[in-house]
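Memo subject: From amino acid sequence to discrete backbone structure tokens
Keywords: amino acid chain, backbone geometry, structure tokens, three-dimensional fold.
Body of memo: The sequence and its backbone structure tokens, given next.
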Amino acid sequence: QVQLVESGGGLVQPGGSLRLSCAASGIIFSNYRMGWYRQAPGKERELVARFTSGGSTNYADSVKGRFTISRDNAKNTVYLQMNSLKPEDTAVYYCNANRPYSSRDYWGQGTQVTVSS
């Protein structure tokens, strides 16, 4: 059974930092493109950052220079380091695992990030 378990969310003041983690099980982690998405109230889910099939990274324009995605294949974990957080970063953040050229696409349960003073 595939599980993606996010952690690290919480309440932080503007300008602060958080590090999200997503631990995967039930998949061959290195075969999957891992990514982070977010959904704010009343809005659609959007890409935050992800790894491509070639191992490079894509970021939403709104987070470039502030967020960094990384992965540790030995720990089956993907991270999202979020710096200089803004109130508009408030959302539920979801981890995604996608196997290229297949229908295998999995989501975590989400972790809430709230940026507020």
Notes: The mean pLDDT is 96. The longest strand covers residues 18-25.
